[in-house]
């Protein structure tokens, strides 16, 4: 399988994951509301997503995208390392590229660690019923709000979730720009606009995801 095909898979799955993050962030912004409102809304929304057959298909596409994205990113990173094994004191190839673009492998590893911990905290517990049980709220919905709230009353998790949003921000900023380039988008003015959109997107997503745990902690 050639490099272009591998990079295209990384780009397409990455763009899909970027869309997922907007939807996921919007849902999690409910956590910023006062507790009396947030609990019912968050739990109803979560039940709606879990029980909708169409969303179930999208969820499988999401899991597949994460697996393909990580797998091909690893292959490309290993191939690049093999192709350029020596490190030079001055690397002129870096002149035109950012720190994030040079360290996508390392940044991606941090995000992978985050996703594994995150899925163990929520997904495995809520969807697979692993670990401590999940209670129900007054409407009979799984109390996902309580799972979130109790996790974010542990300051170590708050710090972990918030800190890991820094590499996520760098990854999204560089990833969004390079995905469009990989897929053949080379319009000069368009790329300038894309660069700004990618920066705003990365800042909004990482800052909001990063402050939600603190707000829940302080409630
Ligand atoms: C404040 C931060 C976050 C909170 C409170 C949060 C909360 C949750 C919750 C409650 C679930 C389980 C949903 C359910 O089954 O009802 C979930 C699932 C998930 N989250 Fe997050 N999340 C956060 C940040 C993130 C970030 C930054 C990413 C990705 C980089 C992410 C990726 C996922 C994925 C892939 C799933 C599994 C999707 C599914 O349920 O099928 N989350 N999250």
Bound molecules: protoporphyrin IX containing FE
CATH names the topology as 3 helical TM bundles of succinate and fumarate reductases
CATH architecture: Up-down Bundle
- Whole-number average pLDDT? 92
Q: What is the structural class?
A: mainly alpha
The CATH fourth-level homologous superfamily: Fumarate reductase/succinate dehydrogenase, transmembrane subunit
What is the CATH C level class, in words?
Mainly Alpha
Helix content estimate? over 70%
What characterizes the major β-sheet?
none
Shape: globular
Order of helices and strands: HHHHHHHHH
List the domain count as a whole number.
Answer: 1
CA radius of gyration: 19 Å
Number of helices: 9
Distance between the termini: 51 Å
Poorly predicted segments: 88-96
Question: What descriptors fit this protein?
Answer:
219 residues; mainly alpha; 3 helical TM bundles of succinate and fumarate reductases; 0% strand; binds protoporphyrin IX containing FE
Topology at a glance:
Elements lengths: L2 H26 L6 H17 L1 H31 L15 H4 L1 H23 L17 H8 L3 H9 L1 H18 L5 H31 L1
Helix pairs in contact: 1-3, 1-8, 1-9, 3-5, 5-8, 7-9, 8-9
Could you characterize the architecture of this molecule?
The model is unreliable at 88-96 (pLDDT under 50). The chain has one domain: 3 helical TM bundles of succinate and fumarate reductases, CATH 1.20.1300.10. The longest helix has 31 residues, at 53-83. It is globular. The N and C termini lie far apart (51 Å). With 219 residues, it is mainly α. The protein is built from 9 helices and no strands. Helix 5 (104-126) crosses helix 8. It has helices spanning 3-28, 35-51, 53-83, 99-102, 104-126, 144-151, 155-163, 165-182, 188-218. The site of protoporphyrin IX containing FE has 19 residues, from helix 1, helix 2, helix 3, helix 5 and helix 6.
């Amino acid at each position: 399988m050639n490099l272009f095909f591998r990079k295209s898979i990384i780009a397409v799955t990455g763009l899909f994951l970027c869309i997922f993050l907007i939807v996921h962030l919007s849902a999690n912004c409910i956590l910023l509301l006062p507790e009396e409102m947030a609990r019912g809304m968050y739990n109803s929304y979560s039940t709606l997503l879990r029980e909708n057959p169409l969303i179930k298909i999208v969820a499988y596409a999401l899991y597949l995208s994460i697996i393909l994205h990580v797998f091909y990113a690893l292959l490309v990173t290993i191939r690049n390392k093999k192709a350029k094994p020596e490190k030079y004191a001055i690397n002129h190839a870096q002149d035109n590229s950012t720190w994030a673009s040079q360290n996508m492998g390392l940044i991606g590893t941090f995000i992978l660690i985050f996703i594994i911990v995150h899925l163990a905290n929520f997904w495995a517990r809520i969807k697979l019923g692993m670990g401590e049980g999940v209670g129900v709220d007054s409407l009979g919905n799984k109390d996902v709000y309580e799972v979130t709230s109790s996790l974010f009353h542990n300051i170590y998790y708050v710090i972990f979730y918030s800190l890991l949003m820094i590499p996520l921000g760098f990854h999204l900023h560089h990833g969004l720009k390079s995905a469009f380039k990989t897929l053949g988008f080379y319009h000069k003015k368009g790329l300038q606009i894309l660069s700004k959109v990618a920066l705003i997107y990365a800042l909004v997503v990482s800052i909001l995801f990063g402050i939600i745990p603190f707000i829940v902690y302080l409630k």
